Amino acid sequence: MKKLAFVIVVLSMFISCKKAETTGKYFAFGSAYNFSIGDHATFYLLKNCNLYPDNMERYTNQKMNFKDDKLSKDKYKLAKKLQDEIPNFLKERPSEYFGCPDCADQGGYHIEIGDNKSVRTFHIDTDVSKQPTEIREFVALLKSVMNDLEK
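The chain above was modelled as a monomer; its predicted structure follows.
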């Protein structure tokens, strides 16, 4: 019975991954602190059922660049959990700034959601009081997932 359950889980993951590959969807997320010296940009790309780390030292709203090396499936699952929790508040909006990310050397969170039709980018202040209440729980999850990914 356990073998059958395992096969069903693996098969469902494979099918959902195949669907994601054909739709061209991706999800990129991370944070940047651009007033510091060194590598202070940490981003991840979730695409084609894989998770990729960034290949950038800084992020200044330019096109994100990612390595070709995939991270482990455990890390992929963490990022997928975050993607699955994107609030409708963000899904229903065009690109937008919330607060003033990194204006006071406090850093900022950045999210990019892309599909075959468009790319939407969200820049979010790390100051919770500057975040809409509709995304605060998601931003807390983003921060937690990023901490877990860096371990």
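Strands lie at 26-32, 41-47, 50-53, 96-98, 108-114, 119-125.
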